[in-house]
Design brief:
It contains 35 helices and 35 strands. It is of the alpha/beta class and 1020 residues long. Bound molecules: zinc ion (ZN) (2 copies).
Length: 1020
Amino acid sequence: MEFVKNEQKILKFWEENKIFEKLRQKIKGKKPWSFLDGPITANNPMGVHHAWGRTYKDLFQRYKAMQGFDLRFQNGFDCQGLWVEVEVEKELGFKNKKDIEKYGIEKFVNKCKERVFKYSKIQTEQSIRLGQWMDWENSYYTMSDENNYAIWHFLKKCKEKGLLYKGRDSVPWCPRCGTAISQHEILTEEYKEITHKAVFFKLPVSGEKNTFFLVWTTTPWTLPGNVALAVHPEFEYVMVKSKVKSQNSKFQVKSQNESGEKYILLKEKVDEVFGKGNYEVIKTIMGKELKGFEYEGLFDELEAVAGVLNSYKHKVILWKEVTEEEGTGIVHIASGGGREDFQLSKEHKLPVIDLTDGDSNYGEGFGELTGKFAGSDEVRTWIFKNLEEKRKVFKIEDYKHRYPTCWRCKSELIFRLVEEWYIAMDKLRKPLMQTAKKIKWIPSFGLERELDWLKNMQDWLISKKRYWGLALPIYECKKCSNFEVIGSRKELGEKAVEGWEEFEGKSPHRPWVDKVKIKCSKCGEIISRIPDVGTPWLDAGIVPFSTINEENKSSINRSELRGEMPSYFRDKKYWKKWFPADFVCESFPGQFKNWFYVLLVQSQVLEGKEPFCTLFGYSTVVDEKGEEMHKSKGNAIWFNEAVEKIGADVMRWMYVKQNPVSNLRFGYNVARETKRKILTLLNCYTFFETYFSKNSELKTPTFAEASLDRQKLKLQLKTKSLLDKWIVSRLNRLIKRVTGNLDKFDAARASGAIEDFFIEDLSLWYIRRSRQRFQNPESEEEREKAASVLYYVLLNLAKLIAPMLPFLAEEVYQKLKADKMPSSIHLYDWPKAEKKAIDEKLEEQMAQVRNIVSLALAKRTELGLRVRQPLASLKINEKNVTKSHDREKTLQIKNEPELLTLIKEEVNVKNIVFDEKVKEEVELDIKLTPELKEEGYVREIIRHIQDLRKKAGLIPRDRVIIYYASSEELNKLIAKNKKQIIEQTKSKLAKENPKRKGEFLQQKQIKIENENLWLAISPS
Ligand SMILES: [Zn+2]
Ligand SMILES: [Zn+2]
């Protein structure tokens, strides 16, 4: 079975027959079910991790559509931001922002747009290949006018509510990208194990001879920014006298730990820092007693430092966040070099020394450091040398720690003092937490994670000093420091005093929008937009407001729609039909502080309401060994490679079967195992097809419709076969189970139940036990009855798998389909469980039968008896069997001859005896009479003939002639059982070998009880 080739065929079938359009017609105007797509970054081809989420999205949308809900089927592309910029920079060979400016912002921004179009097209094709049904023509793009203008509206609302402000803060900064990285963009995985050189240095205590505070840092570049030292008020510190002579450190900088000098540090740390016996304690001091102690700074001679410090004296402050874990318990505070440092400087009114510029180079007034990159080895070496000259080095050592890096380019982040724009979060914190509680989070720990984030979040940094992104509509007056926020394109047009003509017809991006100037409403000065762009999370968080439109029309690339706004701004009634979304579905690592979070914030500000009712989160895709996939590691698997190798349905089955809380291990070994299971499912359909091919009398509309008709179904259930009734009961239970689980968005349980059904119930039991009725039925009527039941089961099973395995479902349906039936399985309604068809008692009985069978077969294996050898009897101890089944019910099969026959046939015994004296659950009578032996041989011969037929690729209806040659004894046995052999193998028997070897379809030499037997077949 070539999954890949068949899937291509089915894609073509769907397209040519407009199946998706027909589905949309079918559900149009029905009760809405609103799915909101989290946009995929249109920046690269898809990996296998993308396909996981897209499979869920497709599954639940298809499911809801089959249930008769109306859906928008809108896909989203995330377009703006640093991720795209960085890739374009790579493409163009750029090193930093200066290269972009030289190249020209307009050309650069156009390149970014081009890249988005290129990859959104590729991702669309890939998603279609996965079998995802979306209204691809009308995907939303976050770079569209309406998306950008909707954010303008949001920001204006923030301003009106007093939430928007410009703040000066020390923020994590990427020196390469030249932009601040906001708190929620630094995920756990952005912290890398890095070894830095840590320095212990000496700061002379003012007015005390030869006495130093001993301090430690891993960021020596921040030392010129030192303004204070922090100690914990409740910790014990000591003053010690050193007994160690100075020694050379391995970093070519001399250690200047001089014997006789006095040092102050945390008591806990003395042994670790000095080594036992290398010091003498002079006195113990509580941290709080150190408050206000003054000391001499390290770089006070630098112009930039002296200028800020003025008459300020370096001093010790108290801080409860000081820990005993690292360093000396005395923390170096550089107000411009760290977030907490900056906070403390505000609290304690400390001066703030601004160290670096946008490229993280030292600014003016830092002597030899000016213009040098703060993170460079050169700077580090210079500072160590300088400290040595000043005799301030205590020791230098390697220090391994987890250090934040840029999520885009992996550069180490360096804290920097900048002016950025923020949305204040304190006022929103409580309402957001209340809103989060109204949402159903799946898995439920999602709520705790979200609340935890909301509790700890800081103000939202929304500005980026970059090029490709939302143009923040903030106009700042340099003269009177007033700032204004523009809420729409219309408003900008009305307030424009300059540059509108140049902007007309353009998207609201840099550099075009920057041409427009307005007048300061306070002082009348002509003012410009700030050059910053917005964080792309603003783009993704606004989508509930910017993407809902009557015709799903997207303004992307349609200049005639420039400035026309989506339903939220024109037709609230229509918008409310789809808001809040019923369902969102994304991979959760990271999203609690990203997409889920920004959706909550933007919806809170605009509507005071939850943006979605149910959230379904899933984990991450890793490789087969459980390791993270990375391009650089060589273990990443691209979507195209996987789908052309194993097919979309196999991938989808891997995804839906996965428990979404755990990481999904993706690899080709797992795929092989999955494929094997799907083949079992396919074989059930092939079995039916084998006996009822296209030409079969049963493939008429009457038959097909009959099995669809409920009335007829009941008639069929009146048939005597308990096996039939049982599979119908199991199927209806399955329908109930799958529906219940999909209603809870539990795809793993739903698909698990389906798999159990088609392997355990359908393939291993129903079809196996029905084989005889298909191959050698008692009557045509009996065969037709069995066929109707199997047809009913297979058709409904196809409906159940349709949302999960859309290709396979279509493929098998096309073989079941008769005239007048819907042209595609995907146009069926979701099946409803027939309560009356579910028969508890029968299911329990069959479970008991199967339990006995498995006990008896285990016995056979234990005794080394081939199943093909008939035995006289199986003895059953009723009590023991009931116990072993771990059910409280009593054995209910004694009076059901059909069920007992099932056991007899399956275990291959002539009789069943209920006997209390049997020691275990079951016992086999292993005495072989000549008759039993003979029967065993005949069965053996039949099996070999069937095997020859199979090898020759024959179908059941093909008739053959069997040739055989053997000893007198065996010849007699075959002749005696001729009738049975002929019947069961659809053949004629010919004793002699009239043909030369090689003229047979198949032949083989076998041994029956040590006697040779030659068998061959040729067409009849
Ligand atoms: Zn970067
Ligand atoms: Zn002004």
